[in-house]
């Protein structure tokens, strides 16, 4: 108990004295070994990265959150670290700090790279983003080869094959642990289908398979839960809107980038599902772009069961109607080229 008000004032003054703010982190009493997962976000100062960092800081499964970027990560880290949630936040800036950012991680989420501007396709981002993804994945192979990777950087249809080849070259490739994030397609599909059906999107479940660009995004409207049917006009409208959802946002942002907020939301939900899988929760199923034997292509997005090993089971597509079968053929044609392009980037 304070013996006098002057002592109390002195104590407060001492606390406010700048040297006391210099108390170094390592001198602080550690949190009692909080259980949880260690998560790194690479590209954490970007449009997706910042919101995703906020959402991951709020996730009770996360005990340590590493925020890495080539610019501005100290500011984002200082800001996020003041949130009174469990995760300890640490920032890392630039290539020399990549190894420290990655060492000891359980999950690495990668939204690093440039976004589209109006008139561009996702494939137009290849020339810049392929190199960024290669460098970051080389770091993953070296510092945390057993980590689960959630790859967001576009073009996902090519960056996932790039990551796979980098890991193969390093001798660390585990197909179960590399997941291309297509969760935003599912989020959009649930929203748009909910609008047409007059349902809360939270109650809607639309499988979206194939890949993450244009016609490779194939919503399976015949498999929507709760069971329902659509007119041919509704099917055409919904399929196009889901396939063009990214372009809708790019055009609305008019040069200021692509989806960031809805993407951060979808990525945070997907990362949470991966962490629940790693924790051993049963029945965690999400769509993702993964190594696959569902079609003749080496990678394909479909429902996967997430577990301690990562994508433990890749589900078959189930029965498709005629409209979806035609869509599947178109999707596979474009996907094959994008996958090959990514593979060649490392192999050749
Ligand atoms: N998978 C999806 O569904 C989906 C959805 C939306 C956006 N995206 C893609 O995500 C990527 C990021 O989008 P954004 O809107 O956040 O872009 P942004 O430009 O706002 O942020 C990207 C961040 O990456 C950082 N970065 C660049 N090179 C890096 C490197 N070598 N290492 C670490 N960080 C690096 C930048 O400094 C920047 O902070 C884009 O490629 C975009 O197309 C994918
Ligand atoms: O459309 C884009 O370029 C970004 C992202 O892939 C999206 O689907 O919103």
Automatic annotation (TrEMBL):
<feature type="active site" description="Proton acceptor">
    <location>
        <position position="212"/>
    </location>
</feature>
<feature type="binding site">
    <location>
        <position position="263"/>
    </location>
    <ligand>
        <name>NAD(+)</name>
    </ligand>
</feature>
<feature type="domain" description="Lactate/malate dehydrogenase C-terminal">
    <location>
        <begin position="182"/>
        <end position="345"/>
    </location>
</feature>
<dbReference type="Pfam" id="PF02866">
    <property type="entry name" value="Ldh_1_C"/>
</dbReference>
<dbReference type="GO" id="GO:0030060">
    <property type="term" value="F:L-malate dehydrogenase (NAD+) activity"/>
</dbReference>
<dbReference type="InterPro" id="IPR001236">
    <property type="entry name" value="Lactate/malate_DH_N"/>
</dbReference>
<dbReference type="GO" id="GO:0009507">
    <property type="term" value="C:chloroplast"/>
</dbReference>
<feature type="binding site">
    <location>
        <begin position="43"/>
        <end position="49"/>
    </location>
    <ligand>
        <name>NAD(+)</name>
    </ligand>
</feature>
<feature type="binding site">
    <location>
        <position position="122"/>
    </location>
    <ligand>
        <name>substrate</name>
    </ligand>
</feature>
<feature type="binding site">
    <location>
        <position position="129"/>
    </location>
    <ligand>
        <name>NAD(+)</name>
    </ligand>
</feature>
<feature type="binding site">
    <location>
        <position position="188"/>
    </location>
    <ligand>
        <name>substrate</name>
    </ligand>
</feature>
<dbReference type="InterPro" id="IPR001557">
    <property type="entry name" value="L-lactate/malate_DH"/>
</dbReference>
<dbReference type="InterPro" id="IPR015955">
    <property type="entry name" value="Lactate_DH/Glyco_Ohase_4_C"/>
</dbReference>
<keyword id="KW-0520">NAD</keyword>
<keyword id="KW-0560">Oxidoreductase</keyword>
<comment type="similarity">
    <text>Belongs to the LDH/MDH superfamily. MDH type 1 family.</text>
</comment>
<dbReference type="InterPro" id="IPR022383">
    <property type="entry name" value="Lactate/malate_DH_C"/>
</dbReference>
<feature type="binding site">
    <location>
        <begin position="152"/>
        <end position="154"/>
    </location>
    <ligand>
        <name>NAD(+)</name>
    </ligand>
</feature>
<feature type="binding site">
    <location>
        <position position="116"/>
    </location>
    <ligand>
        <name>substrate</name>
    </ligand>
</feature>
<dbReference type="InterPro" id="IPR036291">
    <property type="entry name" value="NAD(P)-bd_dom_sf"/>
</dbReference>
<dbReference type="InterPro" id="IPR010097">
    <property type="entry name" value="Malate_DH_type1"/>
</dbReference>
<feature type="domain" description="Lactate/malate dehydrogenase N-terminal">
    <location>
        <begin position="38"/>
        <end position="180"/>
    </location>
</feature>
<comment type="subunit">
    <text>Homodimer.</text>
</comment>
<dbReference type="GO" id="GO:0006099">
    <property type="term" value="P:tricarboxylic acid cycle"/>
</dbReference>
<feature type="binding site">
    <location>
        <position position="154"/>
    </location>
    <ligand>
        <name>substrate</name>
    </ligand>
</feature>
<feature type="binding site">
    <location>
        <position position="69"/>
    </location>
    <ligand>
        <name>NAD(+)</name>
    </ligand>
</feature>
<protein>
    <recommendedName>
        <fullName>malate dehydrogenase</fullName>
        <ecNumber>1.1.1.37</ecNumber>
    </recommendedName>
</protein>
<dbReference type="GO" id="GO:0019752">
    <property type="term" value="P:carboxylic acid metabolic process"/>
</dbReference>
<keyword id="KW-0809">Transit peptide</keyword>
<dbReference type="Pfam" id="PF00056">
    <property type="entry name" value="Ldh_1_N"/>
</dbReference>
<keyword id="KW-0816">Tricarboxylic acid cycle</keyword>
């Amino acid at each position: 108990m304070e013996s006098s008000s002057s002592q109390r004032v002195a104590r407060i003054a001492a606390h406010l004295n700048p040297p006391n703010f210099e108390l170094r982190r390592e001198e602080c009493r550690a949190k009692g070994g909080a259980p949880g997962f260690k998560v790194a976000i690479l590209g954490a100062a970007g449009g997706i990265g910042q919101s995703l960092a906020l959402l991951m800081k709020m996730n009770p499964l996360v005990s340590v959150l590493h925020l890495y970027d080539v610019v501005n990560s100290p500011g984002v880290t200082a800001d996020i670290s003041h949130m009174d949630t469990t995760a300890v936040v640490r920032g890392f800036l630039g290539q020399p700090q990549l190894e420290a950012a990655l060492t000891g991680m359980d999950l690495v989420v990668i939204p690093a790279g440039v976004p589209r501007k109006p008139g561009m396709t996702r494939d137009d981002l290849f020339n810049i983003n392929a190199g960024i993804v290669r460098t970051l994945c080389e770091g993953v192979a070296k510092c945390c080869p057993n980590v689960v990777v959630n790859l967001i950087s576009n073009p996902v249809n090519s960056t996932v094959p790039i990551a796979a080849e980098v890991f193969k070259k390093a001798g660390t490739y585990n197909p179960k642990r590399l997941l291309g994030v297509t969760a935003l397609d599912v989020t959009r599909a649930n929203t748009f289908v909910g609008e047409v059906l007059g349902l809360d999107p939270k109650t809607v479940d639309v499988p979206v398979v194939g890949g993450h660009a244009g016609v490779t995004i194939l919503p399976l409207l015949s498999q929507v839960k709760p069971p329902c049917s659509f007119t041919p006009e509704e099917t055409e409208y919904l399929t196009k809107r889901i396939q063009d959802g990214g372009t809708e946002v790019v055009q609305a942002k008019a040069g200021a980038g692509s989806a960031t907020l809805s993407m951060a939301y979808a990525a945070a939900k997907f990362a949470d599902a991966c962490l629940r899988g790693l924790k051993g929760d049963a029945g965690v199923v999400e769509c993702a772009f993964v190594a696959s034997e569902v079609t003749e292509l080496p990678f394909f997005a479909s429902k996967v069961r997430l577990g301690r090993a990562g994508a433990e089971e890749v589900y078959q597509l189930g029965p498709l109607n005629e409209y979806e079968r035609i869509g599947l053929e178109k999707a596979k044609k474009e996907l094959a080229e994008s996958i090959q392009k990514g593979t060649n980037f490392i192999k050749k």
